[in-house]
Task: inverse folding
């Protein structure tokens, strides 16, 4: 008989009820990517009393028999047993990305919600690609996708508005004016900041734009990009973070 797999997952307890053979729990498991909660029965009382509805935990689940008519390609094709609680009181994982709103006729007029959904999908895709490359484990996908999503949100907030971009591309101000003495970000600023952010998140130990800001005493990426090139930023971060070139 093949040895059953025991794996760790981040779960949120949806419901909990005493059953004839122990306790019955309904668990929401983002990694399963299922529309419905996963039911786990015959949970021992000493384990069940550690779990409260509405709270999120890291638990160990044992893969059991394959459900009738299922192929076994997905986690939810199997029955699961609850082995124990690994960590209590963890933050809920990033929500699963929703499908973006369909573009109306006559051109795209997407809302901020639709754009956020697209960014969430990109974040999840990047995290899954790291699983394929065997950089991270499958159960680490929600956390890693959350990191990618945070980077995209930061970049979106720091990208200059249309007015600021027009100002950066406008003709030089005559010498002698007060404005000519204030350095302005180049039109390549957003592209440079994105390149630096992608470099940082893809390091063996991922870093965010917030970590880069700490290296420069709390400055925003906009302020840093005024005087620093991507190469200069990377060199300084490597030195502070102790990364060998």
Result:
């Amino acid at each position: 008989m093949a040895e059953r797999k025991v794996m760790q997952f981040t779960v949120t307890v949806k419901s909990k009820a005493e059953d004839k053979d122990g306790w019955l729990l309904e668990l929401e498991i983002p990694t399963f990517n299922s529309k419905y909660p996963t039911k786990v029965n015959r949970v021992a009382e000493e384990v069940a009393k550690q779990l409260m509805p509405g709270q999120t935990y890291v638990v160990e689940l044992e893969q059991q028999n394959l459900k009738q008519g299922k192929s076994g390609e997905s986690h939810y094709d199997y029955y699961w047993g609850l082995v124990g609680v690994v960590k209590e009181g963890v933050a809920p994982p990033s929500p699963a990305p929703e499908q973006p709103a369909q573009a109306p006729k006559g051109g795209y007029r997407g809302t901020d919600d639709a754009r956020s959904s697209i960014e969430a999908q990109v974040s999840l895709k990047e995290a899954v690609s790291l699983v394929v490359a065997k950089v991270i484990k499958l159960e680490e996908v929600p956390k890693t996708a959350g990191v990618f999503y945070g980077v995209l949100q930061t970049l979106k907030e720091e990208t200059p508005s249309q007015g600021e971009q027009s100002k950066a591309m406008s003709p030089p101000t005559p010498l002698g004016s007060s404005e000519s003495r204030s350095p302005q970000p180049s039109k390549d600023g957003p592209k440079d900041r994105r390149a630096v952010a992608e470099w940082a998140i893809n390091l063996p130990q991922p870093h965010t734009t917030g970590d880069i800001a700490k290296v420069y005493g709390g400055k925003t990426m906009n302020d840093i990009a005024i005087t620093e090139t991507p190469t200069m930023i990377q060199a300084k971060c490597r030195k502070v973070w102790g990364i060998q070139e």
Notes: Helices lie at 45-48, 112-132, 141-158, 162-169, 189-201, 209-215, 221-227, 230-241. Confidence is low (pLDDT under 50) at residues 103-111, 175-186. The longest helix spans residues 112-132. The chain is about 35% helix and 20% strand.
